[in-house]
Design a protein that fits this description.
This protein has 1024 residues and is mostly helical. 59% of the residues lie in helices and 6% in strands. The chain has 56 helices and ten strands. The strands form three sheets. Strands 1, 2, 3, 4, 5 and 6 form a six-stranded antiparallel β-sheet that branches. Helix 3 runs parallel beside helix 5.
């Protein structure tokens, strides 16, 4: 290894005494490394290397020189050879002094001092200060920031060199200052800062803003196109378009994706800040949730808006800082209580500095802050303390910057610096009359820019802002004198008394004896200030004759926000005779106004406008075409639809038929008054027989309407239709029956249809085919069954009925149908006897009265010999207990000896305990001595003996029977032994002994039968 070059560097300042040694070493031909050592003088130095692997000699030399130069730049000086005692450092040859900047003429004393401080710092060495250089009274960063605020252009040559080795904070301040005071030279320096990959993010952001401020419009447009090209694909194309609405939807979808980083897109969007992007951005700034990530993004936007003097964005975010509580997070960059307090203070500090500097941007920024608030932000009045210490807090007390702007010079409120709130002062109480004096901060600045006050009055939705702005605007008479009619009209129509009163004062000065200009008179009549409207009514009465043909003026009155103005318009139209042309024009204007309404709160307005339309048209409505009526009926507001209905009612129905879709739209409306109009129209259409017959399909549809009053109104019309044309009535009945059978009618409609068919349309039922009655009776719908019962009652005498159908009807859900079937059965006993197996199905009906009829009917009308064994067993096999009992009784009455074994087997298959017990009556009679039958009954014996806590008598009878039969024959004994052995392991303990005893008894009687257990003798134990 060969040492090619070595440098020893020293740093001494105060108590600091450091050494830094750098070696350039050749490790192999053409391959070198750069090593270094560092530490305090006189101590063991620490080793390191700038080249982890050998590099070429040229590359190693470049690394070596760069490392040495970086240390020299940071204050080190060259020393002696390594290892030798350090000699006092020799100062470097000073660099050429920076240019001396002379303050230009007209510079204020404050700016001169700031320039001197900056120049002293530029001339001073970083580590060796000259005696002629005084210590700065404030941080250099504050000096730089203040120079930028004051736009002292003479500071640019001093600031540009500072960017080379500045700390991030100083670079941030220098870049911000250059953006406000710089020239073309600053653009180059800021461009290098922006392009440098090592520039911290916060410095890059402020450099971006500074470059945008200094660049020309074409450069800014190119930059914004580049930013748009880097947006997410979902936002890129909407942002390039010219329509703000699609972009707003795309941004909402992007933010609703649930991704935490989705909110980051707001920063590049603010750089774009085009007419397409800005509306959605402003809306999102007001509503985006305050998460940790959103707080960081909003803070960046807040600083950018502050730098741009973008009052709208600045005010929105300032409003969020006032409204949002701090986040309960321990994150150092989170929205903590201290951070929120700092940001709220900063809002007012920014405004105060602009005001103190008398910058025109003050009004722009203040307007943005004030416009962010509206009446909904008011809080409840608050009272604290007791007795003499009681304090009052008005409804706007929590908002620091808001109160500072409006009440900084007020004698009724006092600011509390610690809590950043305003409270009532002295004897003033919330709700007391405000003094007629100026209370805002920096009133002269507002008077210099009265357009800002007018902007507040035009867009603000906050009462105290209107009180302040209208009072301040009165101090600008020259500006008020130049306002045009539209501006005065705007003041008059604002919903705040203070603003409307100002507009009324201006209008009173401008209206001449003929009450011209007419637009201003209309604005007074539409004013939110009641005295202004009353005066306007008196003025209009004076020139009433000249107003009546001015349809635009009358339409303006009719569409006013206030009911008394609309009432005046209606009275004016009713008391005047308008020409045909005036009527058409006025109605056209009013209909257009109605169709433009969208809010539910506009219902009273729509009602009053409709009254004016009807008053203008008079009794005939030919001036309004059917297409206009269709548009009115299609409007979402019921009040507008009512006008369409009224216009249809006024048509000449004989010559101008009403389309069925419009009539249906009226009568099926959810709005009751509109339905009433439709029903009135329907009644008018049905006055003539021809028109009534033409409405057949419509009446059929309305008979099944969801709305009860529509169905009720149609019933008499259907009766008239049937009387006018039986064939039409039959078609209606057929359609209604089809709808009833399909079971798709709304709730309540089937009952209505059934009542209609049984009432007004009952005469048409006679023509129905027989199958229709059966379909109705077999339907699962109760109302259809009711209609079927009606048909059965009317035409049952001529219907052909067989036994299966009669039995089915005898258990029908409708009582009248059941009673009809019972009468038929009583009258047709021979036919029932022939099909008795089918007839006994009546006993399985779910209706008690039907089963009771069946029990009586079969007992009284049929002899025991009429019932076959199969019929009796089918009755006994029923799952109903009363039917089982009836079956057992019938078996007893109709028993035949030859059917005994079969009956026993059939009864043994039934699971009901009562039937099982009944079967035991036949065991000894038919199974004794019959081993084959005993074996067939094995499942029956097992079921009976397996029952727990029921069937005790049956169990005892079966056990006794098995014991007796087992002793009598070997075959029966084997069957009994098998059943008893199986059951002895499963039955309850109390019955096990009886089973064992029975098995022992059988074993003694039949020794050839093996016993499934061992008998052990009882052990006898004797006492000793």
């Amino acid at each position: 290894m060969k040492l090619l070059e070595q440098v020893s560097l020293l740093f001494q300042e105060g108590k600091s005494d450091k050494v830094y040694e750098v070696d350039l070493l050749e490790v192999s031909p053409g391959q070198c490394v750069v090593n270094f050592r560092y530490g305090r003088s006189g101590t063991a130095l620490k080793d390191g290397s700038k080249t982890p692997v050998p590099v070429s000699q040229a590359e190693a030399k470049r690394v070596f020189d760069k490392l040495v130069q970086s240390k020299l730049d940071s204050g080190y000086v060259r020393g002696g050879a390594p290892g030798t005692p350090a000699s006092p450092p020799v100062p470097r040859t000073p660099a050429p002094p920076p240019p001396t900047v002379e303050a230009p003429a007209g510079t204020s004393p404050r700016e001169r001092v700031l320039l001197e401080q900056l120049q002293q710092e530029a001339q001073a060495r970083r580590w060796f200060r000259r005696a002629t250089v005084r210590a700065q009274p404030r941080d250099l960063e504050r000096v730089i920031w203040r120079l930028g605020e004051l736009r002292v252009r003479a500071a640019e040559p001093l600031l540009l060199p500072m960017l080379e080795r500045a700390t991030p904070l100083r670079a941030y301040c220098v870049a911000a200052a250059l953006g406000r005071l710089g020239s073309e030279a600053s653009v180059s320096a800021l461009g290098r800062l922006y392009a440098n990959a090592s520039t911290p993010d916060m410095v890059r952001r402020i450099a971006t803003e500074a470059l945008l401020r200094l660049s020309d419009e074409s450069t800014r447009a190119d930059f914004r196109r580049d930013v748009v090209g880097k947006l997410p694909p979902a936002l890129r194309e909407p942002a390039r378009g010219g329509d703000a609405e699609p972009f707003g939807k795309a941004l909402d979808a992007w933010l609703a994706s649930g991704k935490e980083e989705a909110v980051d897109v707001l920063e590049p969007l603010y750089l774009v800040d085009s007419e397409t992007v800005r509306p959605a951005l402003l809306r999102v700034l007001r509503t985006v949730p305050f998460t940790l990530r959103a707080v960081r993004v909003l803070r960046h936007l807040f600083k950018a808006a502050e730098y741009r003097y973008d009052g709208e964005v600045f005010g929105l975010i300032a409003w969020r800082y006032e409204k949002e509580r701090h986040l309960r997070l321990s994150h150092p960059r989170g929205y903590t209580r201290e951070t929120r307090t700092y940001l709220r203070r900063r809002v007012w500090r920014t405004l105060r500095r602009l005001g103190e500097l008398e910058r025109p941007e003050f009004v722009k920024m203040a307007v943005g802050v004030l416009l962010a608030f509206n009446d909904a932000d008011a809080v409840p009045v608050r009272t604290t303390g007791w007795g003499r210490d009681q304090k009052q807090w008005d409804v706007w007390w929590p908002y620091w910057a808001f109160n500072q702007l409006l009440y900084r010079e007020s004698s009724r409120y006092e600011p509390l610096e610690n809590s950043l709130a305003f409270r009532c002062l002295g004897a003033y109480r919330p709700g007391d009359k405000a003094p007629d004096v100026r209370e805002e901060a920096f009133p002269k600045l507002w008077e210099r820019t009265p357009a800002g006050l007018l902007h507040l009055l035009d867009e603000s939705g906050c009462a105290p802002v209107h009180d302040f702005a209208s009072r301040a605007l009165r101090a600008c008479p020259d500006f008020l004198a130049k306002l045009d009619v539209d501006a005065v009209a705007m003041l008059l129509e604002r919903p705040y008394v203070s603003t409307a009163r100002l507009g009324f004062e201006l209008a009173s000065q401008r209206l001449d004896a003929r009450r011209e200009p007419r637009a201003l008179l209309l604005a007074v009549a539409r004013s939110s200030y009641p005295p202004a409207r009353q005066q306007a009514f008196r003025w209009m009465d004076e020139v009433r004759h000249s107003l009546i043909e001015d349809t635009g003026f009358i339409a303006g009155l009719a569409t006013a926000r206030h009911a008394d103005t609309r009432a005046y318009a209606a009275n004016l139209v009713r008391g005047s005779v308008l020409s045909e042309q005036a009527v058409r024009t006025l109605v056209g204007r009013l209909v257009a106004a109605l169709l433009s309404l969208k809010e539910k709160e506009d219902g009273p307005l729509a009602t009053d406008v409709a009254r004016v339309v009807l008053a203008a048209l008079g009794p005939v409505s030919r001036a309004v075409g059917l297409e206009v009526v269709r548009d009115l009926l299609a409007h979402p507001m019921p009040e507008v639809q009512e006008l369409g209905g009224e216009l249809l009612l006024r048509r000449e129905l004989r010559t101008e038929p009403v389309p069925e879709d419009l009539l249906l739209l009226l009568v099926q409306s959810e709005h009751a008054p509109l339905r009433a109009l439709g029903l009135r129209l329907l009644a008018l259409l049905s006055e003539s027989e021809a028109t009534l017959l033409a409405q057949e399909d419509l009446l059929t549809r309305l008979a099944t309407s969801r709305v009860a009053d529509v169905r009720a109104a149609v019933r008499p019309l259907l009766g008239r239709l049937l009387a006018a044309s039986p064939s039409a009535g039959a078609r209606v009945v057929e359609a209604l029956l089809g709808a009833l059978l399909r079971r798709r009618l709304p709730e309540g409609v089937p009952a209505h249809v059934a009542a209609l068919l049984s009432g007004e349309l009952a005469p048409a039922l006679a023509a129905l085919p027989v199958e229709t009655a059966w379909r109705l009776l077999e339907s699962e719908d109760a109302d259809a069954q009711t209609v079927g019962a009606e048909l059965l009652a009317r035409h049952g005498a001529v219907l052909t009925v067989d036994v299966p159908r009669a039995v089915k009807l005898a258990g029908h859900d409708v009582l009248a149908v059941r009673e009809w079937a019972w009468r038929w059965l009583e009258a047709h006993v021979p036919e029932v006897r022939a099909e008795l197996s089918t007839a006994v199905g009546l006993l399985d009906s779910r209706w008690d009265d039907a089963r009771a009829f069946g029990f009586r009917y079969f007992r009284e009308r049929f002899a025991p010999e009429d019932f076959s064994l199969e019929v009796l067993v089918s009755v006994a096999d029923s799952v109903r207990k009363d039917v089982q009992a009836f079956g057992r009784d019938m078996l007893t009455r109709s028993f035949r000896e030859e059917d005994g074994p079969t009956l026993l087997l059939r009864l043994s298959e039934h699971p009901a305990p009562a039937v099982q017990l009944f079967a035991t009556n036949y065991l000894d009679r038919f199974a004794r001595g019959n081993p084959a039958l005993v074996e067939q009954l094995t499942p029956y014996f097992t079921r009976v003996l397996s029952q727990v806590n029921k069937g005790r008598v049956a169990r005892q009878r079966v056990l006794g029977f098995l014991q007796r039969e087992g002793r009598s024959t070997e075959a029966s004994g084997r069957v009994a032994m098998e059943v008893l052995h199986r059951m002895s392991a499963t039955i309850a303990i109390e019955h096990r002994a009886a089973a064992l005893e029975a098995m022992l008894s059988i074993a003694r009687a039949q020794p050839s039968i093996p016993v499934p257990f061992h008998v052990r003798p009882v052990e006898v134990r004797r006492a000793v």
